[in-house]
């Protein structure tokens, strides 16, 4: 009986070790194939009625469904009066960015803005372990589905008659950074990629932001490592992906008083990028959806550069736009 008990214990231990090894392998293996194959083809477009938000711009909510089961919600903001094909800004920020785009983005000016939601349909507030287990799988699937969701949205946006297909730019804000790095590297249709208040080292960023929730300096790095693995962090290595965006331009915007992201992580991200690249520092704290004025100020920088770029392409060779001449761009 003792021998049988020992053998059973060894077998159970071996099974647990194999399960742990499989789990570790599954959460660390590259997901490039998933990012490419999951997009599929659009089979359904559910477009809500266009809403006139003010005298200058309108908005429209859209849900896209692919033959792979992937679905993405977005909101499109555009000038009420169309003046030929316009530059397109695709924005990925915090959760529910698309639904809240009217409040966060505001008047898009002379560009079209498409603000995306993350493809996650689970509960936003989890109160117990019973809710956490099924929600975790939905969260993980949503993370893996975000880069292909960006490309799926672009498939539809490129069919709109008021979009200038040569002036399409991708913007990742804060939490959107790792996903935009992947989508920007894989989808060559984005002529330029922006990363706003994002940095390199996703695991270190998680640890840095766990300070108030995990006060123990011993347990904090272990908790960050576990969360990083649960989020398939190795597949979203921002440093690796931004290096693949070149030769298309990458612009990084950092905040001088960012309380959520150390300055060296922004600089490390910028150093990993290939040319052409640019680093812009702005005053203030980390971007926060509860302060839409900050979001609008940052996006205004992107919008101004996009308008300049579109105007420059219509000028004779060697000429520059007035704002570009003043700033030396």
Structural class: alpha/beta
Largest sheet report: 10 strands, mixed
Q: CATH class of one domain, anyone?
A: Alpha Beta
Overall geometry: globular
Helix content: 40-55%
Helix and strand run:
HHEEEEEHEHEHEHHHEHEHH
The N- and C-terminal alpha carbons lie at a distance of 81 Å
CATH-level-4 superfamily name of one domain:
Alpha/Beta hydrolase fold, catalytic domain
Mean pLDDT: 87
- How much beta, percentage-wise? 15-25%
Strand count: 10
Give the second-level CATH assignment, the architecture of one domain: 3-Layer(aba) Sandwich
Low-pLDDT residue spans: 320-329
* Contiguous helical run count: 11
Structure overview:
With 329 residues, the protein is α/β, with parallel strands linked by helices. The protein has a domain of 229 residues: Rossmann fold, CATH 3.40.50. It contains eleven helices and ten strands. Strands 1, 2, 3, 4, 5, 6, 7, 8, 9 and 10 form a ten-stranded mixed beta sheet that branches. Helix 6 packs across helix 7. The longest helix is centred in the middle third of the chain and has 29 residues.
């Amino acid at each position: 009986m003792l021998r049988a008990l020992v053998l059973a214990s060894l077998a159970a231990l071996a099974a647990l070790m194999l399960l742990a090894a499989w789990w570790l392998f599954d959460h660390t293996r590259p997901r490039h194939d998933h990012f490419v194959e999951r997009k599929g083809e659009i089979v359904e477009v559910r477009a809500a009625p266009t809403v006139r938000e003010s005298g200058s711009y309108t908005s429209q909510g859209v849900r896209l469904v692919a033959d792979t089961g992937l679905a993405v919600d977005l909101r499109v903001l555009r000038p009420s009066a169309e003046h030929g094909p316009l530059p397109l800004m695709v924005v990925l920020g915090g959760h529910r960015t698309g639904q809240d785009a009217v409040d966060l983005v505001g008047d898009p000016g002379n560009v079209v803005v498409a603000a995306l939601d993350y493809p996650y349909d689970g509960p936003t507030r989890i109160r117990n372990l019973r809710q956490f287990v099924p929600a975790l799988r939905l969260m993980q699937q949503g993370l893996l589905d975000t880069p292909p969701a960006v490309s799926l949205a672009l498939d539809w946006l490129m069919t709109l008659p008021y979009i200038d297909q040569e002036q399409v730019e991708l913007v990742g804000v804060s939490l959107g950074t790792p996903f935009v790095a992947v989508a920007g590297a894989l989808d060559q249709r984005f002529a330029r990629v922006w990363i706003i208040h994002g940095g390199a080292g996703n695991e270190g960023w998680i640890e840095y932001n766990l300070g108030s929730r995990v006060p123990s300096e011993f347990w904090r790095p272990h908790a960050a490592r576990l969360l990083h693995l649960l989020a398939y962090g190795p597949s979203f290595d921002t440093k690796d992906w931004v290096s693949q965006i070149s030769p298309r331009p990458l612009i990084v915007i950092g905040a001088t008083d960012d309380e959520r992201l150390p300055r060296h992580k922004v600089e490390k991200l910028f150093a990993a990028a290939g040319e052409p690249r640019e680093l812009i520092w702005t005053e203030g704290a980390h971007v926060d959806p509860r302060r839409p004025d900050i979001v609008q100020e940052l996006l205004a920088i992107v919008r101004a550069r996009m308008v300049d770029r579109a105007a420059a392409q219509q000028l004779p060779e060697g000429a520059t736009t007035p704002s570009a001449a003043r700033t030396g761009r």
